[in-house]
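step=predict obj=UAA transporter n=414
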Amino acid sequence: MSNRPLLGALAESAAGEWAAIISLVFGGCCSNVWALEAVLKNYPSSGTFLTFAQFAYVAVQTISSQIVWKKGSCVPRWRRNVVPIKRWMVQVVLFFAVSLMNNYALGLKIPVTVHIIFRSGGLCVSMLTGYFIGRKRYSAGQIFAGVVITVGIVLATMSAPKPPRRVSTTTAAAAEAEEEYLSESVQYVAGIGLLSLALFLSAWLGLWQESTYRQYGNQWREALFYNHFLSLPFFLPMYASLSRTFSAYMSSPPVTLLAVPTPDMALFSPVDDAKRELIKWRELAVPGALFALAVNVVTQGLCIRGVNRLTSRVSSTTVNLILTVRKAVSLALSLWFYGSGWSWGLIVGGTMVLGGTMVYTMAAPPRVEPSKKKEKDAIELDNRGDESDTSSISTALNVRTNGVASVPDALRQR
């Protein structure tokens, strides 16, 4: 009897923790995709600026993890990195290229629905690179899942509906439309090519990160900071494009955040017939595109936090299942809220991709010889650590929830 209050408190605590995790994963990640599409709807070619904003936000947010405060000293000291900078630079270049390609492809007539489905196919590419480069082996169930995912991606890509033409009165949007020298079909093919290249680079990045963690330990906080901070100088040659996009965002239609009460100055007017009121409500408004961008980067951080908390609670298999469902919710949200357009081929292909991911997650692993079991267990332990700590932000940062250690789902965007 005496243990009931304690057990009840633990149950309530666990329920509250799970409610917070589910809210962060589904609320944070899905609203992240919603805000992304809100920006891209009128500014489809702002992928470079989006990538820069995300990288700068994460770099500022994680800089505290690299600062050490000594007792009795008011001056902080920079934490000495465990992994050599020259090794980080290889990962930084790959990470920067993958993130930029994924976001830039959205400006090449790639619907967000196809973007979500196509990037979910990273599992197939990871299996190929793991087999030929990482010397990994897969069971019949896992191979079957990879085939289903591949067929689903091809079907969804070939059946993608044409995005609706955007009608905008802004000068920036009109100028952007005039600068389109390629047809929509050519841009679509180029976008698919960029996403395909990004998938292979992402798989290579996963293998490199796995090797780094095996040598130097699971330094995920260090990786998260240096991947984003050291990437910022690469945006310098793109200053003109970033400046142009920022100006376009500033000129976007305003969004009212709240109304602030202020004293009515007419009360102090000597004119008798002046309209007098005790207070007047003044609206606080910001450019709509900047507001959507702020929501995107903030919810990205919430998404990352939710995925990290999730991976600390359950196995990587359960993480994969929950994040697969999350992608399905994001896909449905895009179709319902923005009317992104659909076709039966897109629906069937998306179902095959999501279903294949679940099959892979639940498939039995290949048999391992007893002499190699110890080595395999050590590798899986490293991979589990990679997934639990890095399958959070960016990128999205789109995630190594596909079964390979790589960049986080949030940062990899959708």
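step=describe
Residues 171-175, 376-414 have pLDDT under 50 and may be disordered.
step=end
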